[in-house]
Amino acid sequence: MLYFFYLLLGCYLCFLLLLVWAWLQLPTKQAPATSKFVKLSVLVAMRNEENNIGNLLQDLAAQSFPTDFLEILVIDDHSEDLSFEKVQKWTTALPSLRLLALPPSQTGKKQAIQLGVAAAQGELVVCTDGDCRVGKDWLLTMHNFYVATQAKFISGAVLLTLPPNFAQLIWLQKLLLHFQVIDFMSLVGTGAACLQLQRPTMCNGANLAYPKAVFQEVGGYAGNDHLASGDDEFLLQKIAKKYPQQVYFLKQTAALVHTPAHTRATLFFEQRKRWASKWKHHNSLTIKGLALFVFCFHTCSVGLLAWSLVASWQADEQTQANNQFVLAFWLLKIAGESLFFAVLLPFFKQQKLLPFVPFASLFYPFYSTVMGIAANQKGFWWKGRQF
Fold first, then answer.
1. What's the domain range around 123?
2. Is residue 149 part of a domain?
3. What is the torsional sign of CA 297, 261, 159, 41?
4. Are 253 and 332 part of one and the same domain?
5. Tens of pLDDT along 155-198?
6. Is 274 a member of any domain?
7. Kind of pairing between the strands at 257-260 and 133-134
8. How many domains does the chain have?
9. How many CB atoms lie within 10 A of CB 275?
10. Is 29 left (phi over 0), alpha (psi -120 to 50) or beta?
């Protein structure tokens, strides 16, 4: 039986090394500046963001990108707070801003984005979320990369940020927040590496861009518009299928988008459950195979540890040898994942989190097993709605 675990661990470590290699191969050189601009349409699908949307609009107002080639469309998805009114107050200070509202017959982020794309006048659509923060060169970096590559899809990096009151939180909340940040970076890094390998798997709707014409050409969200999640990944798969050589990850810190981590474990769980629920709806064998492999590896890691603990009451030589194998298995797993994060963290300027990676490596197999099971259960809550 141990030979199976040797093989499983070997495959996992090879996978991690492949991700490390692909991440390091991603170009970091900025695209050359251009004096010939194309118009950008920034889409923000918003629901119940009264505490956050003002910060994003302030960031968009401070962009280094020329305002003559910029429009901002905020699409309200039936907010139940003062989000709509807050955006309305910005229309005077931000002339490029347009506020749209979904009709009563339509709900959800995909419907909001489709409405925004239909109304967009720009050549390149750039998407983010209402609770995000962006740097002043975000749009200029996106624009120059698009002009230089003529990309059909651009995936950007997203970083979770800690709350202002982080120092006052209890240690368990701090561990949860650090785990969220590390887990999120692993998703971004894996998605970026897979794009570099031309095996697109995941991206994040808080930071992506695509030509309006391409969105319309692939039919937008047709075929998966009934699903509450996947406004990012399903579109990536469609565009990558038609233009496999023209989907990119933008590895530029100037294009990094920040979004807050959840301080409540229930919100974190519901978010991850929503994300994980998408895997079975993908047509890509790469995505399904990768999801199953990662789930099986971490579930087997938990099972191996449980087996070792149960058998430890026997003090024979075989049990000691088995326990040594289990210890080596987990140490090699942690070492491989630590290497992955050692090359990932500098891009995000989060090297201080490296000491927390072993903790995340210990906890992740249990988390992955629970989420894998939960993802196959129907229903989750998000933004005050049950799906």
1. 30-264
2. yes
3. positive
4. no
5. 999 999 999 999 899 888 899 899 999 999 999 999 999 999 99
6. no
7. antiparallel
8. 2
9. 19
10. beta
